[in-house]
Each structure stands twice: as C-alpha cells, then as structure tokens.
UniProtKB/TrEMBL annotation:
One of its GO terms (molecular function) is DNA binding. Residues 4-59 form the HTH deoR-type domain. PROSITE patterns: HTH_DEOR_1, HTH_DEOR_2. It comes from Meiothermus luteus. This is Glycerol-3-phosphate regulon repressor. It comes from the Bacteria.
Amino acid sequence: MPLPSLRHQNLLHLIRQHGGMSTKELAKRLGVSEATVRRDLATLAGQGLLQREHGGALLPEGEPPYAVKLARHQGVKLAIAQRAMPLVPDGATIVLDSGTTTLALARLLAGKPIRAVVLDIPLAQALAQGETEVLLVGGRARNGFYSLVGPWVEELLERVRADLFFLGADAFDAEGVTNHTFEEAAVKRKAMAVSRKTVLLADGSKWGKRAPAFVTSLSALDRVVTDLKDPALEALVKVEVVSGAV
C-alpha cells in the first residue's frame, strides 16, 4: 500500500482530473479498500482540499460524480418523472437532457410510441424498448458522466424540430438555470432553440445555487417540475410541486 502522503496526492490528482469520483472507483484506481479511501477523504476534506459527498467526493463546488448524482434524492426524482410523464402524448417528438432526473423519466417513457432525441448514453439504454424510437445525437461522451457534447451534437440538433425539451440542471436560482460545464450549457441552449416548449425537471436541493455556465433565464421555461414550494420561484415561472413520497 502506498504511503498515506503519496496516496493522498494520487487521490487528489484523480479528483482534479475527473472533477469528482465515487469511493468505489477511487478504491479501484488506488488499489486500496473503500474504508481506506473514506478515511483519506475525511482527512483531505478536513484540510479543505475536497468536498465529501455520499458515495464519493468532488472538488469544492465541483460537479459530483455520476454515481453520487444517481444515488441522490431517488424518491423525489421518481415523483418528478411521474408528474412529467403525462406531458408527453403518443406520437410526440421530445428531447431529453442528460441527467439522473431525466433518466427517471426515460425509464417511465420506455416503450411508449414517441420519438426521443437523447443527450446522454444511459437515456438511450433506458428508452430503447417497444415502440419508442430513440435518436442519439453523436458527439463526444464526457468520461464518467456520459453526456454528449460538442459541435456534432449541436449540428444534429439543428435539424430537429421537437414538441418538448425536458431540461436538467446542476443549479438554478432567480437569475436562471446554470451548469458546471460550458459545453453542456451550449447543448442545452440548442435543444431549447429547436423545441416548442422547455420544462425544467429539478429537485429542490438545486434551488438557490449557481454553477459557472449560464443556460437560460427562468422566464424562457414553460414550467418547472420540482419538489420545492417557494413563493420566490413561483413568482418567476409556472411551478408544479410534487411530493417526495412515492
């Protein structure tokens, strides 16, 4: 086993390289137990060098690892997806943003006679069943996060005319929706431009926070489906509030 100081350096290098990683993946990469990784994370978090999350760690104010996102607020995400599902009639053409809340919706829509343009790989895997027609937009897959980004994505989206875009978010506040990466933000804006309506699906933990890359103002949205009841949000956009108990 490497000396703790060297192991800490290697761990921080991995976190900085990927923006965030799960405890399981860190243990595998470093060749140590998950218990050792958890102790190292506690030490480094105490020094302010990283931010601990359930199931992993990330750079302070960085993007959580996909596994961490997937484990968060599962009941709320399902409730949001259940509320959003009736918005999609048979025969509709929709765009589904990358993310774990839209993944919950994709699982409910799988097999439905619709056409779905998807912006990450897990969405395509979840939807490709029955009568659902799935279109992948190509581009570059973000390692560890699986979203599709880059000019190829934007060029293909330019040819799409969708009824509805289900938008995900890393954060949103009174000024609008924001994201951790500028590449993803550009893809989201393009998807909005080719869709008649945009619906934000976001749990309340993201409200009042801000990430570096601006996506859109709240006034550009048709509605927000969330578990958050906040008059400040409701004054800015139509809100459908769900319960986290599913």
